[in-house]
Amino acid sequence: MSKIIVVTSGKGGVGKTTTSAAIGTGLAMRGFKTVIVDFDVGLRNLDLIMGCERRVVYDFVNVVNNEANLQQALIKDKRLENLFILAASQTRDKDALTQEGVERVLNELKNTFDYVICDSPAGIEKGAHLAMYFADEAIVVTNPEVSSVRDSDRMLGLLSSKSRRSENGEDPIKEHLLITRYHPERVEKGEMLSVADVEEILSIKLKGVIPESQAVLKASNSGNPVILDDQSDAGQAYSDTVDRLLGKEKPLRFIEAQKQGFFARLFGGK
Amino acid sequence: MNLFDFFRGRQKTASASVAKERLQIIVAHERGQRSTPDYLPAMQQELLEVIRKYVNIGNDDVQVALENQGSCSILELNITLPDR
């Protein structure tokens, strides 16, 4: 049974594309045939994060408009056998996607893939709407910060009212919370909302906490999804998240502040 | 934290709890609005205009609230008439 998972947030810059790349790669590493689709028409970036920007010939909009077929547009990942990318168009605008066209392409993808990951653009306009409309599950990416939490709640409202599942009266989209850019030290000092605070406000099931990490920038610099950096905290946190999405129980890691020694505290170490 | 802070003791900046409180209020408010139909503000405006044909009332004198109790919805109108 193949699944369409949308990665969404409302607010920009919280880590949707980083998350799409990491989760998609993680699913492929576990043997699932996975495709990641970039819905951010006009501002594509998934190709850069995945490191395949020089191999984009045809894109999602070409397939929607029947200017190319899926086989021509799907980019096969060089690292993993099971992983494919469908890039967004860089030249068209958001209205280039139509509901009928997106539905046709997603149905075609569902026939061959176990997981279709939809990387939503920021905002609540057409691209974001179409990215979530056909979804079976949603990963709501949230930073522990007021505007991100509020926008996530707004997205949850849209997921439960403006999707195919809600309009057809089917089972609702399964919602998962993913907290990213988490600073345990700042939480401990009372400067940042805690995991429990965000969970309490949004009241959806938490599937992972990704700590603020230097590994994320390093990964995007080189075009490798951060989950491949299995030595890094963020990579391991994403790996746990993928396992939880697949139904495994895993304790949360990287949510406690590192204990500082007496001298570090005395002399203002980091 | 530097030497000075160490001796002064840890001063909690409670900004996270302020954030949480503000978020709980605004999110509850916005969720409440989400469940009300889109036509409510326009209806409130029209009601106001109809009543104004007969009585002089201010913009805030008509309160419209929709309450859902199981399968039944109750529309509550609260109109404050001016003192005579």
UniProtKB/TrEMBL annotation, chain B:
Task performed by this protein: Prevents the cell division inhibition by proteins MinC and MinD at internal division sites while permitting inhibition at polar sites. This ensures cell division at the proper site by restricting the formation of a division septum at the midpoint of the long axis of the cell.
InterPro entries cross-referenced by the UniProt entry: MinE, MinE_sf
Alphabetical GO biological process terms: cell division; regulation of division septum assembly
Species of origin: Pseudomonas cremoricolorata
Keywords: Cell cycle, Cell division
Gene this chain is encoded by: minE
Family: Belongs to the MinE family.
The keyword Calcium belongs to this UniProt entry's keyword annotation: no
Protein name: Cell division topological specificity factor
GO MF term set: identical protein binding
